[in-house]
Fold this protein.
Amino acid sequence: MDPIKVDFSGKGADRGREIVIPPEKAALKIVLSVVCSLLTGGVIYYFALPALNFKAIEFYYFIGAVIAAFVAFLALFTAVFKHTEYVPYVKKKAIVPVILILVLALVVGVGYVVGSQFFRAKSYSEIISVKEDQDFDADFDEPDFKTIPKLDESASATVALKAMGALADLDLESQFKVYSGLKAASAYPQINYEQRPVRLATLQYANIIKWITNMSDGLPGYIIIDTANEDQQFVKLEKPIRYSLSDHFGRYVTRVVRFAYPTYMFDKPSFEIDDSGNPYWIVAHIDKTIGLFGGRDVKGIVIVDAVTGECTYHTMQEVRESAELRWIDRVYSDELIVEQYNYHGRYGKGFWNSVLGQESCVKTTEGSNYVALDDDVWLYTGVTSLTSDESIVGFVLVNQRTKETRFYRVSGGKESAGQDAAMGLVQEKGYTATFPLLVNIGGEPTYFMSLKDNAQTVQLYALVNVRQYNKVKVTGNTISGCLDSYVESLKSVGVDVGKDVENIALPNEDGIETAPGTAPAEEPTADVVGAVTEIRSAVIDGNTVYYLRVTGSAAYYAVSAADCEQAVILNVGDNIRAGAKGTGNIRRLTDLQILAAE
């Protein structure tokens, strides 16, 4: 037999070609690589939960990761780092996977281009339908201050802590904490419940060990925060919540929905309760309506029973028309609404106008709040020009259940200008203002805000005129006193609304409230002396706030480390003397002193 001739000189016919030497059991190694890459894909799918949909960008990342895993496993099984002679073989087998990845990248690139605002500006501007120039006086009745929200999300977080004391009766106070993650559409979603604005808070297991020991029993209930009367309640359920965002594996809500609808794209889950107080997760089914990746909109919803995990799907037509689904308040997330309205405001007259002339181009202001109308929750945000000046040209209301959108043309200061005006009146106290809520005071568009201390406890209320925010701005210890001062301030600039505000409903503030025209009552104070029995803490607006319980008192006493450095070194068992202000289950500490041990 003639010997095999191999030209290693690089001058023959095979010059430039690599010699491909297959490893032993090459076919088996390819099969193993395929199997391992598929197993890797299964693990990625289980934890990353991508939608198996060509309109989902994460789908392409997922397929690309599986293909790359095949090449990596083939290199591993052929031991190319040890046997470099197999490198040409792996390169050859990687040609098809590389081509597939390039094709995926090309599809993604083309998909973004054909669905970009540059080519489809008109489609983006029409993704939300806006009822322009609505009548402010006709749609906004006199405010009912008994039901107007006074707590924002950060203040609600503080109030929610008070409800955790109810778990002590169940011997579960150390097993759970209030959910504060980012996997939900909102950690404290606002809904209408029994004709009142409330925020909801769910629980989470205190840590992984507490999850292991309590998962069989589930979460015992949820928290309702009444944002109008600043009260809270822990709702103990007969059947616990077993499906939540703090659970793992098969009881993780997002995984439950993904496995039930593998090809659907979803927004973040939102926690809600029906009219009977039963807990559910509302998950919006998202579709891309412009090109391959553009124009996010809601196509339907999945309702997940938080107790049983049962999923039911409803189209948006059903959500809008079915009386049985009227209890649902949050379908369209704040982020999606703002995104769609900004497309409408920016591209109404085409792409080039949004870049060059910017005629009639507007955008939403920074921040949003909620208005209760017709037993629905409407997202409110101001509308300003693209140049980001300090004024608004109007404001927009969007129904979070139906996406009905109304624009009201009202000129004046932005919400941030109203906040600055209110905080400027009490700048020596260092209070922060909640995002303004728009109300109608005698036909005058007015910003209503609560002013909070470092412990996120509401201390004052503020009313600032939208049109004349630099001149008409007042604060008060009570709403009635604040309203009286506001009416007088309007008179000083020639606006008399006295008769128009006589029938405004005012809350009963437990004897602290004063009638219009009278001086506000002093905030109750008390002395606190005793041993510290419990210490909790929370970081709020960058400040650490400590919540203390003292012997002989069921209330929590809040003190900020920024106001009192001694709070940092407090330990359970320390004896303290301090002053306390306020009433209710959370009060403010002043002049804290740590007493020497006897």
